[in-house]
Design goal:
The chain is an alpha/beta fold and 317 residues long. The protein contains ten helices and nine strands. It has two domains: 177 residues, no CATH class; 134 residues, ABC-type transport auxiliary lipoprotein component (Rossmann fold, 3-Layer(aba) Sandwich), CATH 3.40.50.10610. The longest helix has 36 residues.
Length: 317
Amino acid sequence: MKKVYLAVVLIFLFLSSVGFSAEKIGFVDSEEIINNYKGIILLREQYNKLSVEWEKEAGNRKQEIDKLKNQLAEQMLMLSNEEKKKREIEIEEKQKEYENFISNIWGEGGESEKKYEELVKPVIEEISNVLQKIGSDEGYVMIFDISKGNIMFAKTNLDLTDRVLYEINKEFTVAAVETKETKFYVFELKDIGTEATSKSLGRQISNLLKSGLDKFEAFETIESQTVSETMRLLGFMKEKDLDDGQIRRVAIRLQARIIVFGEVEIVSGKIKLKLKWMDFNKGQDIKTKEFSIDEKEKLETVAQDVMTFLGREVKGK
């Protein structure tokens, strides 16, 4: 989901009863509040479902145009000038329809922007209400939003972010629904160096993790075909070529809870794995941990270590 900033970036609370002799100033990080607000998960799911549908429709339209172009190129010598012109006009019309669709969905003021604003409006209002209440009840003159990084220094005791999060999540009345299955996906680990590449260590370890985690109780792996289709819609080709930001985008589209990725290399006779993972139930921060085994040991050893570690992390142990 797009980055969200409070509708009121700088809140001025001029309290006549307090006066400037007792000025009280605080700040919040609105982006952190949004990302850690419990209700944002449900909103993200709604928005992402629509995004996937729009992207699928765009992909289908593009494929149709490409198909018509290929057919015209293959049959060019057999077609009359009249038939060529007819097909060229058809392709032009399809291209215009495709471009209009893209503009209507993702252009300025398009359906994507409208739906996003519709979904996020209640959240913005709720956060603003909490800020207004804190400011009024506790005598704050100003509460700044530092999410855009415009403040160079501020004492941590002025930070109200956690306070706002506590208040807004306390008032969040929708009960959390535990799904029966935890959807996860293991992206192909990147091979670093010629030794790791020649042995395809990244792919081997990734496959071991996929099959192993899928056996965990309440874990469900997302099908590789689904991942490939989502990547194609986003304009990505190979898993191993994705950077961290692109992996995050794919994972959000997949509505995965857990994603695992990283890189592996062989250094001085040891296989070193830099594991990266995200748990979207706990935000979008990328966490890392390094594992190492002797090159002579079986890959199942490091895979088991990783699975044990992830199991504990997901369960919060």
